[in-house]
Amino acid sequence: MRVEREVWRGVPLLHVAPEKEWSEPLPTVVFFHGITSAKEHNLHYAYQLAEKGLRVLLPDALLHGERTENLTEMQLIVRFWEIILNSIQELDYINGIAQERKLVKGDIAIGGTSMGGITTLGALAAYPWIKAAAVMMGAGNYVELSKAQIVQFESRGFQLPFTDQQRKELFETLSKFDSIHNIEAFNQRPVFFWHGEQDTVVAFEPTFKLYNQLKEHYRDTPEHLYFMREREAGHAVTRQGMLAATDWLGKHLKT
């Protein structure tokens, strides 16, 4: 297995693939990390995927990893949606470069943990060329989640740097990537969800509700939708969840 640090159009990423097939077109996954994390922290996902013969690209999100500006966690949270929308835009660049270099066999898959799972669901709403996805403790209710975050901040006495007009514009933008508002965009593509029922960071119920709404749209392909719930788990993916997610991506990228 080979791991290379690269920079694609200003985006630092780790490029992981089987050594013997490094230069060949391979089924490819782009995997996003969580807030305050970095690309290196998801190398265990990349290892499992590369062992299955897949190529994996792990980008650093804006203000994270090699792109850090040493902001506090609160400063990062205030810019949460800017970071996510930027990652969705950069996914288009990453896919384009990978396709141009003939590194990809077919269409790419995506996945991510926490903020990366939220990014994954927004990207599914934006890009029909994504083949499959794994959402690890993510959420697709962008508008509802952003409103709840604002209420939480203000209830704790934080003054957010947004005018009423800016808030309105933010909600309008987020609605374009909101899973609830764009449920047809899933188009029965294979999607795996993992979520711990005790998660106090990204709530379990909204994501499980989304899954139940999606089931109606997957009537003809129920095998393309799976929700793995763990009753005692919180905001940390278990080994069983990680292995199930990588098995899912490997299976659906190779078919």
UniProtKB/TrEMBL annotation:
Cross-referenced Gene3D superfamilies: alpha/beta hydrolase
Key words of the record: Hydrolase
Peptidase S9 prolyl oligopeptidase catalytic domain boundaries: 105-253
Domain of life of the native organism: Bacteria
Protein's GO biological process: proteolysis
Entry-linked Pfam families: Peptidase_S9
Name of this chain's protein: Peptidase S9 prolyl oligopeptidase catalytic domain-containing protein
Organism: Planomicrobium soli
